[in-house]
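FYI - complex with copper (II) ion, inputs then prediction.
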Amino acid sequence: MPIRLLAVTCLMAATAACGGGYGSSSPTAPSSSIPSNAVTITIVRQNGSQSFSPNPATAGGELVVFRNADSVVHRVRLNDGTIDTGDIAPGATSRAMTMPDQGTHYHCAIHPDMIGAVSARGGPPPPCTGIYCNDD
Ligand SMILES: [Cu+2]
């Protein structure tokens, strides 16, 4: 009898563990879906205009993915609001998105001091306007 009781207890524990598994689903695409021609911008850490590498990235009109190399969640949004990556978990990479031909400016929707720019091919980024711009 004691042996059977032990088996039942283990089964219940296993079921409880399964029920507590993965929580909310992530909007971040799996790494295997990243196009090989995409430019990767790495999210380094929360550090103003040094948060992203490279910054600026020469990627006007090109596919870009954001790879989160930091230990906290970040969320990249173009300053004009046209692209939002959704939450990017630590270690994850965003879906690929096409940057505007003329370049653009972006920031982290969670940490607004994190700012970055995409430059047009062969040229500088467009002027930055609004609150998500570097003052120096
Ligand atoms: Cu952030």
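The chain has one helix and eight strands. The domain at 28-119 is CATH 2.60.40.420 (Immunoglobulin-like).
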